[in-house]
Inverse folding.
């Protein structure tokens, strides 16, 4: 994940917008996107600071001790049927809205 911009840069950007410069001009001046300038300015008006929002904790960190992790992966899922020895599953053909059973290739 990319690191957030420094608070110093955010404050200078917000100050430039506050002094009357356009968001596009400020974005070009500080080499950031126009969207960032707009977001930081809005956040500064709403909360009083242009500081980055804190990162949310991982979902795993907040799991109660009694709950086990949900299994992830094919071997752990009981709802996936093994297709070995059967006809190929239905596939979507390009250009149509119908699913059609396509025979499995022979000889392999």
């Amino acid at each position: 994940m990319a690191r957030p911009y420094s608070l110093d840069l955010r404050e200078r950007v917000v100050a430039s917008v506050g002094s009357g410069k356009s968001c596009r001009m400020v974005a070009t001046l500080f080499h950031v996107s126009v969207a960032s300038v707009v977001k930081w300015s809005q956040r500064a008006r709403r909360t009083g600071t242009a500081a980055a929002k804190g990162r949310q904790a991982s979902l795993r960190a907040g799991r109660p001790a009694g709950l086990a992790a949900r299994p992830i992966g094919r071997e752990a899922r009981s709802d996936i049927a093994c297709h070995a020895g059967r006809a190929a599953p239905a596939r979507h053909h390009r250009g149509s809205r119908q699913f059609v059973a396509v025979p499995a290739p022979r000889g392999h």
